[in-house]
Design brief:
Helix 6 (332-341) crosses helix 7 (361-367). The longest helix is centred in the N-terminal third of the chain and has 26 residues, at 9-34. The protein has helices at 9-34, 63-72, 110-128, 261-269, 307-317, 332-341, 361-367, 403-421, 469-472, 504-515; strands at residues 108-109, 133-137, 145-146, 150-151, 161-162, 166-169, 175-177, 196-200, 212-215, 219-221, 226-229, 239-240, 251-253, 274-278, 282-287, 292-293, 303-304, 321-327, 346-350, 371-375, 377-380, 386-391, 394-399, 431-433, 445-453, 456-459, 476-480, 490-495. Helices cover 25% and strands 22% of the residues. The protein starts with 8 loop residues before the first helix and ends with a helix. It is built from ten helices and 28 strands. Strands 1, 21, 24, 25, 26, 27 and 28 form a seven-stranded mixed beta sheet that branches. By secondary structure, it is an alpha/beta fold.
C-alpha cells in the first residue's frame, strides 16, 4: 500500500465540488476577459477585485452611477460543470437583459448556486470556529447541533434495574414473598436468598443475587404468601443489567448531530446538565416594498405581506436565530443604512433583486463594496435571487418578492449557507418518481411543490411564482430539469422542515387530486 492516507468519501465529495466550482469560475472569468470588459469589469484590467459589485477604482459614487457600474459588470458567479443530469450548464445560460443598461449577466445553474452557497457557508463557519460554540443548558439546546461528540458520563443503566412491575426472585420457586417491596429510588435493597421474592417496581434497583423478575400478570400468590410462576422463568428475565445500553465513555452521538427532543432525553440519561453546541447564526430580515400591508384585506393596489410572517419561522427551522424583521419599503437610503449597520451573519432581503425602477438591492451592494457570489440562478420560480458577501463574516441573500419565488431562493441559497453555519448535517439527496408529468422551462430548472404519497410524488397545481397555496400543502419541492419531466421519471425532492397531510393517511391522494392537481 502507498504511504498516502485515504480520504473519507465526504472529503472526496467536498474536494470534487470545490474543484468543479473553481473550474467553472475560471471559465466564467476567462469568458469575461474575452468580452473585453476592462475598467470596472470583474475580470478586467482596471484593478478591481474579481466579483465585486462596484467599480474597481474605489468605492462607487452616487447611487445611480454605482447601479450602472454594477449592471455593466458581470459578477463572478461560480458554477459547477458537475451539474445534475439534464440541468443547464451555467456557462451557457444568461439572465434576461437589464432594461436600464442593455447588459446581460450569466446565471448560475441551480445545483451550482447551491454548491456556491454551501461553500460560502463552510468558509464562514471555519472563520467563526470556536467562537461560535456555546455551552447551554438542556432546556435551551433544542434545535442546535452538537459541537463535540456526546459521550456517556456513566453506564446506562448505572445499576441493574427491573424492567417491569412484579416480583424479583432468587433461585427456583415457589418463593416466599417478603412483606416490604422495593420502589424506584431506593438504594441498595437487601440481598435475596434462594427461594425468596419481593415485590418490585419498574426502574427499581434489583437486589444482589437476584435471578429474574416475574411480571405481575405472570405470577400469583397463595394464602400462605408464596409466589408461583404461571410461565417458565428464564435467568435474567426482565432485568436490565448495568451498562446494557452503554458504558461510561461510549460515544452516543457524533459532532454535528441535531439536538432533538430524543437527544435531550439521551443526554439527560447519560448525565448531562448542559451541552456544547454550535451557536445559531444570526439573521436579519429586511422586507422591501411600499405596496405591502401588515393587516387587513388587500385594497387600492396594496397587498398583504406574506413573507414577513413566513420567513422568520422558516429561517429558524433552518437553524438561524432571527434577531429582527424590519420593513423598509422602497427606500434605498434606508436599505443602505440597514445593511451597513447590520451585525448579523446573514441578511435576507425580499424583493428588489431584479432591474425594475425600485429594485435597490444591486445598487446597495455596489455602495457597500459587496462581493457577488451568485447573481441570478437558472431556476423557476426565483431566477433573480442573489448571494453576496457584504463584509467579513457576513452574507446577504436577496430573495425575489413573489412568495413562491422567495421560497425557491430560500432553499437554493439560504438553506445551504445556514446549514454550514449552524453545523447541521446535510441530507443525502434522494429521488422519487413523479405521478404526473410536469412542464419544464426550456433552459432552467423548475422547483415544483409536491406531496409524496406512497412511492410517488404528486405535483401540485398552484405553483406560480406568486402562489403559496401549493407549498402550504406540500411535503417538498421536486427538482424538475430543463424541458420538464414525464410521469414516472425520478426527480430529486427537497424536503421541507415539516409535512402535513390534512386528509390523513387514507385520503391523501384524493385530497391532493381534488384540491391541488
Amino acid at each position: 500500500m502507498s504511504g498516502q492516507s485515504a480520504e473519507s468519501p465526504a472529503a472526496q465529495a467536498r474536494a470534487a465540488e470545490d474543484g468543479a466550482v473553481d473550474e467553472a469560475l475560471a471559465l466564467v472569468n476567462e469568458a469575461r476577459a474575452a468580452d473585453g470588459r476592462g475598467a470596472g469589469g470583474a475580470a478586467g484590467s482596471g484593478g478591481g477585485r474579481s466579483g465585486r459589485a462596484g467599480s474597481g477604482t474605489g468605492r462607487p459614487g452616487p447611487e445611480r452611477g454605482s447601479a450602472e457600474r454594477s449592471r455593466r459588470t458581470e459578477p463572478a458567479t461560480p458554477a459547477s460543470h458537475a451539474d445534475h443530469p439534464g440541468h443547464a450548464d451555467p456557462a451557457r445560460h444568461s439572465a434576461p437583459s437589464d432594461h436600464r443598461t442593455g447588459s446581460r449577466h450569466q446565471a448560475a445553474s441551480w445545483s451550482a448556486a447551491r454548491a456556491v452557497a454551501g461553500r460560502a457557508g463552510r468558509a464562514a463557519a471555519a472563520r467563526r470556529g470556536g467562537a461560535a460554540e456555546r455551552r447551554v443548558p438542556l432546556d435551551r439546546a433544542l434545535g442546535l447541533t452538537l459541537a463535540e461528540p456526546l459521550a456517556a458520563l456513566s453506564d446506562l443503566p448505572s445499576f441493574d434495574t427491573s424492567a417491569m412491575d412484579g416480583w424479583v426472585v432468587a433461585g427456583p420457586g415457589p418463593w416466599d414473598v417478603r412483606a416490604a417491596g422495593i420502589l424506584a429510588g431506593q438504594d441498595r435493597p437487601e440481598p435475596l436468598s434462594d427461594g425468596e421474592a419481593v415485590q418490585i417496581a419498574t426502574g427499581a434497583r434489583v437486589p444482589r443475587d437476584a435471578t429474574a423478575v416475574i411480571r405481575s400478570e405472570h405470577g400469583r400468590t397463595d394464602d400462605k404468601g408464596r409466589l408461583f410462576a404461571l410461565r417458565d422463568v428464564g435467568h435474567g428475565q426482565d432485568i436490565r443489567p448495568r451498562g446494557q445500553e452503554c458504558r461510561s465513555g461510549d460515544q452516543l452521538l457524533p459532532t454535528g448531530a441535531l439536538v432533538t427532543p430524543a437527544v435531550l432525553g439521551l443526554a439527560a440519561a447519560a448525565g448531562y446538565d448542559e451541552l456544547l453546541t454550535v451557536a445559531r447564526p444570526r439573521a436579519e430580515v429586511f422586507i422591501l416594498g411600499d405596496e405591502l400591508l401588515t393587516e387587513g384585506l388587500p385594497r387600492e393596489g396594496l397587498i398583504r405581506d406574506a413573507l414577513g410572517p413566513m420567513l422568520p419561522p422558516w429561517l429558524r427551522a433552518l437553524g438561524a436565530e432571527v434577531t429582527s424583521v424590519r420593513r423598509l419599503g422602497d427606500d434605498p437610503k434606508a436599505l443602505l443604512k440597514a445593511v451597513r449597520a447590520s451585525e448579523a451573519d446573514l441578511i435576507v432581503t425580499t424583493g428588489g433583486t431584479a432591474s425594475g425602477p425600485v429594485d435597490h438591492v444591486h445598487p446597495t451592494l455596489s455602495r457597500v463594496d459587496a462581493e457577488l457570489l451568485v447573481d441570478g440562478v437558472a431556476v423557476r420560480p426565483g431566477h433573480p435571487m442573489l448571494l453576496a458577501r457584504t463584509k467579513e463574516g457576513q452574507h446577504l441573500v436577496g430573495l425575489p418578492g413573489n412568495p413562491l419565488a422567495a421560497v425557491s431562493g430560500l432553499l437554493t441559497l439560504a438553506e445551504p449557507l445556514l446549514r454550514m453555519l449552524a453545523g447541521r448535517p446535510g441530507q443525502e439527496p434522494y429521488t422519487v418518481p413523479l405521478q404526473g408529468a410536469v412542464h419544464g422551462h426550456p433552459h432552467d430548472t423548475r422547483l415544483v411543490p409536491v406531496v409524496v404519497r406512497g412511492e410517488d410524488a404528486v405535483p401540485l397545481r398552484y405553483n406560480g411564482p406568486a402562489m403559496l397555496r401549493g407549498i402550504a400543502a406540500a411535503d417538498g419541492l421536486a427538482v424538475v430539469p430543463p424541458g420538464g419531466a414525464k410521469a414516472g421519471r425520478e426527480v430529486e425532492i427537497l424536503d421541507l422542515p415539516w409535512s402535513w397531510n390534512p386528509a390523513g393517511d387514507d385520503g391523501g391522494d384524493a385530497f391532493a387530486e381534488r384540491c391541488f392537481t
